[in-house]
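S1.2 Input.
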Amino acid sequence: MNAPLRRVGVVVMVLFGLLFANLNWIQAYKADEYRTSDYNGRVQVAEYERKRGNIEAGGTALATSKETSGELKYQRTYPGGAKYAHVLGYKPVNLADTGIEKFENDFLAGTSDQLFIDRFKDMFTGDKTGGGNVLLTLSKRAQDVAYEQLRNNRNDVPKGAAIAIDPRTGAVQALVSMPSFDPNPLTGHNTNEAAAAHNALEQNPNGPLKNRALGEVLPPGSTFKIVVAAAALENGIGQDTRIPAGSSYTPPTSGTPIRNAAASICPEDEVTLMNAVTESCNTGFAQLGVRLGADKIKEKARQFGFEQEDLTVGHLGEGGYPVAASRTGSMENADGGDDPAALAQSSIGQRDVRMTPLQGALIAASVANGGSQMRPYLVRQLLGPDRTTSYYTANPRELRQPVSGQVAGDLRDMMVSVVENGTGENARINGYTVGGKTGTAQSAPDRPDHGWFIGFALDKDGNPVSAVCVMLEQAGPGGSAEAARIAGQIMRAAIADPGGR
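S1.3 Output.
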């Protein structure tokens, strides 16, 4: 055989070898991936042969499956439409699933190892037993109120979020992100129409697919003063301790003065810590932060939950919505020493401080619950297809204890004063003790300010029943007052609907 033919033969043998190796790679290593791929039509048909379990809250089905006459036997539907979209997510045919639909997919689909006995029985009966059912912690009344109040807020703000939790357990009572979206068009069996609906949502500049309650981080403004006040209380400063204030304060390293929101706010040279919180005294907290130092402020924020990168909200065991980490940002000079200007701005919730609405609710809940911060969760129970067998029941547990009971009590008194005597009066609820803190945060020089409110409600015996955070993006003047009003409405609804607690 001449040399050219030998070379051709070698090349052919190498190509056959590569083809053989690729076939083995596909059959031995990629088989499961291809078999379970969303793009495998046979897998889709088989998946939709089994009726998917319900997602429910307070005895109401929020996600169900209806029978169709098409090739795919069942279609996922969401009776509540946009109201629950950012909690439930959606289960489409070809797109990626999201939310509780994603995190509890195996149980809802009936493929979970927990439901093996049901599938085993089906082998003999020929039935297709439906998937398991997921029961959520949501208070339907609180969720309804949160959605309607945010959607129809008096400042006509299109973007915002609200989240309410039970301080004693961490159970999420309401979770709304605005703008929202109707998940029903995304789950239709006409995949071209579903993809077009999804693309329209993705291209919407207001970001309706974004879960702002858990994933948005914005400057929290004066709500962050509760963290600074906690650090002060732990470092020898009491409610009645007088701290420097005044109408204006210029940090030593900056020519830019810090002023209060109005000339009537703490114009005197000194105010008590109680009055500084009640009036939301910027100059007092700016100087207090410089006095305490960056290390104490950052550490106290960390103890409340700032910087945590692995928190999820869903099933208490594992999985769920990933929560964006809240950050305090840099407060130091290049040489590592404190930068008084950065520290002063950070101490009033500006500069690089960023917080999620969930973090705001957790701060309020910790104060209301005597210093104990419970791990937030959405999934209350997993019920089998027969609805009589429980495979999981949430057992609330503490996430951390950011402050002692004594400090929590002092903070509680100050936050109650904010609602009874200060800027949070819109959150009042007859027959309940309500505490809170408003926040107005600059977003950009040419944009309106964000409006925040964090707060809690206590019953007549002093037991916490709800903690909430409401955030209105670029709400402008009166944004924090409107956030406080909405927060009061949500907590009132949660109180009236004990099934959500």
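S1.4 Remarks. The two ends are 85 Å apart (CA to CA).
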